[in-house]
Amino acid sequence: MRKILTFIMSIFIIVFVVYIIYSDYTQVEVQNISEDDSFFVLIEDIKLMEESDYMYIDDEIHFTYEFLKEFVDEDLFYDKEESVVVITNQQSVGRFSLEMSTGTINGKEIQLITPLRNINQNVYVPNNLVKEIYRDELVFKWNDKSLIVDYAGYEYIEGELKEDSQVHLSPHKRSARIGNNLEAGEKVVVFAEESSWFKIRTKEGLVGYVHEDNLLIEYGKNRFRIKMENAENTTSNTSELINLTWDYTYAPMRNVESVQDLPGVNVVAPTWFDVTDIEGTIYDKGSREYSRLYREKGYRIWPAVTNSFDPELTSELLKSSDTREKLIDELLNIYQYYQADGINIDFENIYYEDRDNLTQFVRELYPIFNSNGLTVSMDVTPRSTSPNWSMVYDREKLQESLDYVMLMAYDQHWAASPIAGSVAEYWWVENSVTRILEQVPPHKLVLGMPFYSRVWDVDDSGVSSQAVTMSTAMEFIEKNEIETTWDENSKQYYGEIKVGDITRKIWLEDENSLYYKVSIVHKYNLAGMATWRKGFEIPSVWRSLDSYLN
């Protein structure tokens, strides 16, 4: 009996709760919410908040830096110390100091209709500058009571009302109605579908929901906003594969005896320039005669510039917007003086904390060099957990501001490695390439490979090594009568010899091992190959690599 009573009480409670909920729902009256007469701003279907997103200043709409960075340009950069906003794209770099009536685009001064402002610690950018800078990214539609901002490069799906309709605040019939009736035949932009309701925006900027029965809409598979792809993003930089060699230069060039024919090579990258202090002073080892002779032979010249591999120097150099600008201007002047065809940025050993500043430096450099007809490339290491030597490269962001990314796929076992091993085993090189391709498109990736090996001495006290050229490696093997065997895993010849208590080992980089590395270029449709370095090779290697590549 007790069980029956308990069951009946439970049923009663459930019915009572359902009744209360249903009663509350059915007693809700449909409200009409009149349109606010105040001016408002939308980006797509999102209504912006005054002050936090925008503000009227001197009769001009100003957008906040935070809004622009979140919704328009994630690469927008604000130097708080110097009160400078930096805006970059593929063609230009704009620098705008707060409260100033002038700014610069690609170093040339321009007059601003309205200055950028700093109010209550918020940076505001005037609408007239936003429209000019982002004319290829944004579309502005003015109405009497609203400003609607849409993204250029997208096709928005339109719908047409079948009959006079009300716009609802939420996607159900008993939700509040907003604004006035919409007339049959009126066109609206459709953003989403929820159950049997569409989220729409009227031409005046009213955003809400109409029932599917009231709306005629045609859409395809990719509804409701379709990005129009730019074919240039997926095409190769050039029909010709890059075949670059670095030409190491340790001191100012006094003669040009090193200039020689390099069969198959089409780009020479002499290591001419080093940034030596926080002021951006450049140690110049270049030669105009060298550049002239190689260019007359049909080679392109992309001199390399380093950061002296000094993390402290680099940190101080890159953190200042003013210093970055001065360095870029100085580099452009030097590269133009030597009639270079491109620049090869070789910045290494950088604090991970300076990662964003490194990316910003490249982002600011690219449009300046690009607009002057110079190719921009940058050397990066394979992905690893080393903060200073690998993680500091935001490869996905960097490639957006580079023509080529040069993967230095060597030093798998470096000079001070605690384990003896190959400079660049095939499996390791291929793995490095596939991991980089997760962040860099293949038509921008150039595979760097070594012209050197390491001779390792291994004994009970530890491991040491010495880098040797291709000819020195062969002499070492012949002199010591070492029998080498082919290692299928590394795709290299391996040899060793016992000398007293020391075992001497070598994994040989030669035309055989390089053949397999070049095959990776073809396997993954890369942009080409690069070799470190000229002077370490044997003469026959140039024609061999040319035949492998082409």
Layout of strands and helices, then pairs:
Blueprint: H1 2-26, E1 32-33, E2 40-43, E3 46-47, E4 54-57, E5 60-64, H2 65-71, E6 77-79, E7 84-88, E8 93-97, E9 102-105, E10 108-111, E11 117-119, E12 122-126, H3 127-133, E13 138-142, E14 146-151, E15 154-156, E16 158-161, E17 165-168, E18 177-182, E19 187-194, E20 197-201, E21 207-211, E22 215-217, E23 225-227, E24 242-247, E25 267-270, E26 273-275, E27 282-284, H4 288-296, E28 300-301, E29 304-306, H5 311-318, H6 321-337, E30 342-346, H7 355-371, E31 375-380, H8 387-391, H9 395-398, E32 404-408, H10 426-436, E33 445-450, E34 452-459, E35 462-469, H11 470-479, E36 485-487, E37 492-499, E38 502-508, H12 511-523, E39 528-532, H13 541-549
Parallel strand pairs: 1-18, 2-14, 24-25, 24-39, 25-28, 26-29, 29-30, 30-31, 31-32, 32-33, 33-39
Antiparallel strand pairs: 2-3, 4-5, 5-12, 6-7, 7-8, 8-9, 9-10, 11-12, 13-14, 15-23, 16-19, 16-22, 17-18, 19-20, 20-21, 26-27, 34-35, 34-38, 36-37, 37-38
Helix pairs in contact: 6-7, 10-12, 12-13
